[in-house]
Amino acid sequence: MKTCRQCRTAKTPEAFWKRSASPDGLQETCKLCFTQYKAERPKADVLKVQRAWCVANRDKVNKYSSEYKARNSAKVRAESQAWLEDHKDLLAARLRALRAADPEKYLNNQREYRRLHPEKHRAYNHNRRAMHAQVLATLTQLQWEQILELFGQTCAYCGSDKSITMDHIVPISRGGNHTEDNVIPACKSCNASKGAKVPHEWGMKQPKVRDLDPNN
After folding, report:
1. Residue pLDDT, tens place only, 13-26
2. Chain-centroid distance, C-alpha 140
3. Taking the CA of residue 18 as centre, how many other CA atoms within 13 Å lie in the half-sphere pointing to its CB?
4. CA 174 – CA 135 distance, rounded (Å)
5. Neighbour tally for 166: CB within 10 Å
6. pLDDT digits (tens, 9 = 90+) for 34-53
7. Who contacts 125 (Cβ-Cβ below 8 Å, separation ≥6)?
8. 9's torsion region: left (phi>0), alpha (psi -120 to 50) or beta?
9. To 5 degrees, how large is the angle CA 69–CA 73–CA 74?
C-alpha cells in the first residue's frame, strides 16, 4: 500500500501513475488527486511549469529521450513519419517564413543539412523527380532504411559496400515508380553504368550482376 501525499489515503500501487525517478517507481500523488489537480489548474499554467522543469533539467530530459528512442526506435520512426505526413502544410509555411525573414541564413542552413545528411537529401531529390515525372512516389525514409538492411548495406548488383546509392529498377525516366518495390541499393559505379536501362537490358553485358533476390 502507498499513501497519497494529497488526500492522505492509503491505496494500492495501481492507484498511482508510474514515475521511474521515485524510489518506489510511483508518483507521490494518486491518479484521482493528480487528475483533479490538472483539471482545476489552467492548461497554460501546467504547460508553463512543465516547460520550466524541462529547461532546468535539460540533461535528465535528454538522457530519458535518448534511452526511450533506443528502446522504441521503430515506434519513434513511425510516429515521426506520420506526424510529418500530417503536417506538410504547416512545415512548408514555416520554411517559407524562414526563407523570407533571412534568405542567407536559410541557404546556409540548407547547405549544412545537405552536408550532414546526404542520404536524406538524395531521397528528397528522388521524391521531387518522381512527382515531376507524375509517377507514384510513396517511398519513405524508413522503407529505404529497411531495404538497405535487407541487402546488408551493399550493392544489389555487385555486392560492394562502397558509395551506396538508391537505384530504381525501372528508371523514373521510363515510367518507374518511386516505391518500395522499385528501389534497391546500388554502388555509384553500377548505378552510373546501368543508367536508364532496366536490369535485364544492362545485365546481359554485365557478368558481375547477381540475382536480385537478397535471400540467394
Report:
1. 999 998 888 888 89
2. 9
3. 1
4. 10
5. 19
6. 888 878 777 778 788 889 99
7. none
8. beta
9. 150
